[in-house]
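Can anyone check this?
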Amino acid sequence: MSGMTEGEVAELVDRVLSLDEDARGDIVAKLQGEGGQAAFDAAGRLCVAGEASRRRLGADILAQVGFTREGGASAGPFRDEAMRILLDLAEREKEPEVLESICIAFGHLKDPRSIGPQVRLRETRLRDSGGEQGGA
């Protein structure tokens, strides 16, 4: 799998961070589909950034980085390492928008290791909200 250069990925990351929510999708999809190793590496760095917007973007990229038409993200070359990063992020993350992106990524990656963290996140959300209202 070839992919983009680190510079190309960095440029797209900077661009997507400056956009509103509705305009992000195409650039994130480009990073996922064409970014290769450079996008994967950038996503890993984003997941440990201080700003929630950067951690969220990292999780969004990891959701489907290296996806294939045949098998989706769950058959991609970065699946296992992406899961490791996302599982680690899920353990320490507090920001709701980042947690949402992590759960979406877990769904794309279809890895049973994500079930426990998702159950814990759901239980925490229910406890914090006082019950079922608001859903997750």
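Reply from J.R.: I decoded it. DSSP finds seven helices and no strands in the chain.
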